[in-house]
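Task card 7
Instruction: Convert sequence to structure tokens.
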Amino acid sequence: MRLSGKKVIALVSEDFEDLELWYPIYRLREEGAEVHLVGEEKGITYIGKYGVPAKSDYSFEEVNSQDYDGILVPGGWAPDKLRRYSKVIELIRDMNNDRKPIGQICHAGWVLVSARILNGVTVTSTPGIRDDMENAGAIWKDEAVVVDGHIISARRPPDLPPYGKAFCDALADK
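Output:
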């Protein structure tokens, strides 16, 4: 239980990629971390692309980055919605400024692009947003998982095992 006492935000919105939200959450919980699902509204059940539900524990406005040790951004179509909320952008920027682990997979890179924190950062993502990542100043690699300091990125669901491990390792080291 090397992550006992650690707290992580898992952002959620409609059309999240089911595995990309739940796999890292379960992986963190297996190691003792406390994970809170955070959405636009508290107590709302959001539905993933494949029908898996996720009920938010808190709203964006109720959480403060100082109370957490890391943040996860799932892929799917949710990132295109999440990046439109100023509080989400603020959370990502605050986590970045404090060098706390930020996990992003697949289309989740859109949120980091909108937060303007990728200039000079080496990342991966689904190849579909490679241009967006590079136009934001990122150095893009076609690899299962890329760790650049506190930013942990992965391409898609088949990369979840090494992504989950890399995020847990980063959180344990913080």
